[in-house]
Amino acid sequence: IIACNNITEHKEAEEKVRYLSFHDSLTGLYNRAFFQEELKRIDTKEKLPISLIMGDTNGLKLVNDAFGHQVGDNLLKKVAKTLKSTCRKEDIISRWGGDEFAIILPETDAKDASRVIKRINEAFNNIEEEIIKPNIALGVATKEDINEDIMEVLTEAENRMYRNKLNRSEDIKNKIISSLQRELWKKDYETKEHIESLEVLALKIGKKLNLTDDEIDKLLLFVRLHDIGKVTIDEEVLNKQGELSKQDRKVIERHPEAGYHIAKAIPDKAYIADLILAHHEWWDGSGYPLGIKGEAIPFLARVLAIIDAYDVMLRGRPYQPKVTKEKALIELKRCAGIQFDPKLVQVFIEMIND
Hints:
alpha+beta; 8% strand
């Protein structure tokens, strides 16, 4: 009996090693080495036409940077599951590496391959709304002649995938930002109305400070996205009643860095990333996360700190009752030179009293 058990365990161990040598440990799909071996095996006249699909997961870097690699890994698992559910039994689906996937479609012409692409895209579009909805850029190419080099066909599929990704990149990333904003409005006291109030104040102070149109546009975008990093924080911590614990405060204080990474991952938003990182810095250097002070804090971050604090005081927070306009202005004046740029506080008070 002991000998039988040892043989069984040995066989199971061998099977496990064999499985791991052919499969990706994260997604359970075939790995690149297996894909390449299968490509050689299938590259025969009998299997023609052979179509190859390359796919690249959209937004993975943003997810990894802002939410952490565990959330990024879950995104890849969902992509793999969706690909598996839309392809046929005879298709070879593999994780090519990082955020990329590759599929072999034996005995599949270009027309049928296009149908598979359509089916995959529809499956991703039908996924229920999530904070970061799984999405993939695809490219396909078909080998119809035995004399064609299969690796050149794979390269063509890859090139088409990258072109597709480039063409859709801005749209995909804007959808991600919109999704993050909606999620933030759902989970935080920071309402859409608060952002709209800040936009009004930003326009007024922008004119008062004689900012250029470009600077005002930059300030408005910054207003809309300054707290986007809070989307990575648990709702229970964000809306906690009463004083925050030391641990909760540490979690909250990570949001400027998370917001910085989100903005950096989106080319047309990257230019406000440094502002997002600095929007909780204090004039006296006791802010976070960098502890910079005075004029080392970006100018527009100093502006936003004042208008944000003012509007929050008027609206109140879960742990802080709202106050009158007069009391809010007194508080700003008291914190001038400590939390806020004293000259900008003076300009703001003049603007409100005008």
